[in-house]
Design goal:
By secondary structure, the protein is mainly alpha-helical. Helix content is 61%, strand content 4%. α1 packs across α2 and α5 packs antiparallel against α7. The longest helix has 28 residues.
């Protein structure tokens, strides 16, 4: 995975329809079953796509099943509950972004640049995956199981912790007298900025890009670059 490019849910083939001849000689369409694991991904893709509709109300399993042209029972063969479907999206968010963060830690020697790139890939991921952005900021989780919001809170705690580590390196290199305190304050502000940008993107119906004037914003936020 390229550390500069946030990911999207993997594509799966659409259901295959084949023509079979019945006993009376008439052709009929037969719907082929997806391979193991494909239906699960299709359900998550459909859920993410429904979340991308601006102003979308709470998504029901009935609406999700109708979009996929399957029964609600078919959904529950792959997920025990709707909360578990949202957890599948959160798993994807965590694996994608925390994986990118790990790559930045390994490949980028400059701690200030690591912070810059972390913020950039986080906001680019949200812009590329609008439905996921609604999950990240909790807009899609308002009426869902409380543990889902707790998981997203924990995700942003991890982002803030990573920023704090990098920013402490920046502070030490800059010779500040209070590197830990400064890093904690800066990491909190930058994390709040990221959440705010994603919230604005979600609540504007995806019209306001989270990456709008990002270079100028980072120049204001990052120590050593403030105007």
């Amino acid at each position: 995975m390229n550390a500069e490019q946030p990911d999207a849910l993997p594509e799966t083939p659409s259901e295959v329809h084949v023509i079979a001849e019945s006993r009376d000689g008439q052709d009929r369409v037969v719907r082929k079953r997806p391979r193991p694991g494909e239906r699960r991904i299709q359900i998550l893709q459909a859920l993410a796509a429904m979340l991308e509709q601006p102003g979308a109300d709470r998504i029901t399993t009935a609406a999700l099943a109708a979009r996929l042209d399957v029964s609600e029972a078919a959904l529950y063969r792959h997920f025990a509950s709707k909360a578990q479907m949202f957890e599948g999206l959160i798993d994807f968010i965590e694996q994608s972004l925390l994986g990118l963060v790990q790559q930045l830690d390994e490949r980028e020697p400059d701690p200030r640049m690591r912070c810059r790139k972390l913020v950039t890939v986080l906001l680019q991921f949200g812009e590329k995956n609008p439905g996921m952005a609604r999950v990240m900021v909790g807009d899609a989780l308002v009426h869902e199981n409380e543990r889902l919001q707790q998981r997203m809170n924990l995700f942003f705690d991890k982002i803030e912790s990573t920023l704090r580590q990098h920013l402490r390196e920046v502070a030490v290199l800059g010779g500040t007298q209070t590197p830990t305190v400064d890093a904690q304050a800066d990491a909190s502000v930058i994390t709040a900025f990221c959440v705010g940008r994603l919230q604005r993107f979600s609540r504007s119906g995806f019209r306001r890009s989270p990456c709008e004037s990002l270079e100028h914003s980072l120049a204001l936020l990052l120590p050593g670059e403030r105007l």
